[in-house]
Amino acid sequence: MRQGWRWFGPQAPVTLDEVRQVGATDVVSALHEVPIGAVWTQADVEARRDLIETTPPGRLPLRWSVVESIPIPDAVKRTGGEAKREIEAWIASLESVAKAGIGVVCYNFMPVVDWCRTELDHVIDTGATAMRFDIETFAAFELHILERPGAERDYTDGERARARTRFEAMDEREIADLTRNIASALPGSTTEPMTLPGFRDKLAQYQGVDAARLRRHLVEFLQEVVPAAEALGVKLTLHPDDPPRPLFGLPRVASTAEDYAALFDAVPSAANGMCLCTGSLGVRPENDLPAIARRFSSRIHFAHLRNTRREADPRTFHESAHLDGDTDMVAVLRELVAEDRRRGRGETIVFRSDHGHRMLDDLAKEVTPGYPATGRMRGLAELRGVLHALGHPPEAATARPLA
């Protein structure tokens, strides 16, 4: 297995030398500056690759091994195969990635809103902060800030009453922060920042798109792009929904084992794979993560390893330490190790410690929300330790001789 690290580019607070210092060997990155739907040129992809892989004298080499993500335009999610121009552009970006030698591409199919949190710096019992999704605060946003038509039907009388109480206790700053957290696109998001009117308009465009139709659109997309991926030697990995359940009255179709099984049955190519995100899938109590890893082991080409802790209302959760949450991370890693041992060296699984607590000196400096260096370093070290204990230490970088 190979140790990955998500890097948001040359403007990110974490430098490439710091990526080396935490022990990662592989970089997970994307051209975040390219507008959604625009083609990634080969020159731009190769420039980013060269920035990552050109090793200064005396430094350990890094490899850009996973693209996360090439965003899928909204038109594809709403209309499926009818969005021919957008799909052709996506394939053109895929071709640029393949020509640059990058063999794994992660993507998601969440409509309108990508990953969603109500708090980015929830103080936990150690004094560190974690990201949190609170269903009561979310309901307050949906009912009283966004004012989504029909939202009241998704909540009981008691839930609506608690949401109103929560909203009435908010000051202007809290309302602004909550709106920004939900509507303005979190780091790495593959959806665009929205104003509240724009948000309502986007939701209205999905009228009539139920789970069956959204899944059909995803299958139509895959039927177009998977043959190209096969020809290029690229593995596509679908990231789970986060949270893994419908939001804003919209369906989500990558939330359970059966969701993935349906997609693999519809498009059985080995290039149609999954990103095993233990944090996203682990939010649903019925998702057995070790069993999912075992069932779809041959389809896993990339793994996000993080943990979450469900609270009294299981729809509310916060990001926990990597080995201290509702998912048995050791059991998951045992399944991934078994699969990794079956593979040839060139097919080994790339994993990254996903998210992390904001802690120590990161509390006093600018960080990318969800991606502080120290919390992710702790997670990567813990995961690396488990792999050593399982007798399957991850691949390590080899230093080039000093000049």
TrEMBL record:
Its cofactor is Fe(2+); Mn(2+). SUPFAM superfamilies: Xylose isomerase-like. InterPro entries: Man_deHydtase, Xyl_isomerase-like_sf. Pathway: Carbohydrate metabolism; pentose and glucuronate interconversion. Keywords: Iron, Lyase, Manganese. GO terms for biological process: D-glucuronate catabolic process. Its EC number is 4.2.1.8. One of its GO terms (molecular function) is ferrous iron binding. It catalyses: D-mannonate = 2-dehydro-3-deoxy-D-gluconate + H2O. It comes from the Bacteria. Catalyzes the dehydration of D-mannonate. NCBIfam families: PRK03906.1, uxuA. Belongs to the mannonate dehydratase family. This is Mannonate dehydratase.
